[in-house]
Amino acid sequence: MTEPFGSRFEKFVGVEKPPTLVVSAFQSAEFVATRVQWEVGEGGHQTQFDRADGYMICLQRLDVGSQPYWADQRPMPLGAIRSGQFLLLDLNTQHSSVVPNDVDCVSIYTSRDVLVRFQSEHDMPATGLLHAPHAAIHEDRLIRHLGDALLPAIHQPHTASQLYVDNVALALLSRLTEQHGTNPAPLPQVRGGLAAWQERRAKEMLVAHIDGQIGLDALAAECRLSRAHFARAFKVSTGLSPLRWLNAQRVERAKSFLINTDQSLEQIANLCGFADASHLTRAFLQDSGVPPGQWRRISRL
Questions:
Q1: pLDDT tens digits for 173-189?
Q2: Domain coordinates of the chain in residue numbers?
Q3: Distance between CA atoms of residues 48 and 168, nearest Å
């Protein structure tokens, strides 16, 4: 992914951009995630997407009424889209519409080249193609969850760890391939896990990068595996994805600091690879069911 695709939303190619437009974007090697918001005046607002050799998910966070819609200047009906639903657009076609009401949309773009690489890694036909019929409205709980999961990275890109981004990318590309590919099929399963030396080395590298600033590519290369094979084999061996395994190590390290020191939650979060104290608290609640401050008081009784 070589170009800053997210910046194109500010151009509103061929039409005037809304005066209230707010664009926040995050770009990785495999996708661009953008949150686009604006308030629509009377009569709606015309939109038009530039062409690109890839696909875009337009995940709505507000209900959007039915609207005039054109694909390569051919008119067709587009019904109302509820919050949580999305369009899947092939950007080799030019898409334009007149949006009738306020907009809050998470858009995720990935190129055909990225899909080809992903499919090749999984020993699938490397077509780079998805089934994206014009004006089709989709509902997919996992896609919605991934859109929500990307919001912190979109608004605070510096807090997003490489491992987190890679985890989201694999989940997104897997879902698109399995559910929206031209020949949708489950990804091949890995039966065996990592060899003992591979598991040991991967865990050493993860702990050495407690902040998550290490990618799946580096971990896989150290284990002499493809990225896809490594991610699946690690989960077979440990029962957890690399990201979830690392989060568990972070929480255990935080527990040690909570019991043995009087450092603040912000200090402990920094030492344990969390973005901030609120990130630590969310992870702690998920792991232990109580916030870290309460856990510290109970553990010291």
A1: 999 998 998 877 677 67
A2: 5-180, 196-239, 244-299
A3: 28
**CB proximity list for 180: less than 8 A, separation 6 or greater:** 88, 130, 131, 132, 138
Handedness of CA 275, 281, 285, 289 (dihedral sign): positive
Mean pLDDT along residues 259-285: 91
CA terminus-to-terminus distance, the chain: 53
What's the CATH fold of domain 5-180? Jelly Rolls (2.60.120)
pLDDT value of residue 201: 97
User: Exposed, middle or buried by CB within 10 Å (0-12, 13-18, 19+), for 77?
Assistant: exposed
Q: What CATH superfamily is the domain 244-299?
A: Homeodomain-like (1.10.10.60)
Residue 150: left (phi > 0), alpha (psi -120 to 50), or beta? Answer: alpha
Q: Give buried/exposed letters for 177-190 (b at 16+ CB in 10 A, else e).
A: beebbeeeeebeeb
Residues 6+ apart with CB under 8 A from 296: 258, 259
The model's pTM:
0.85
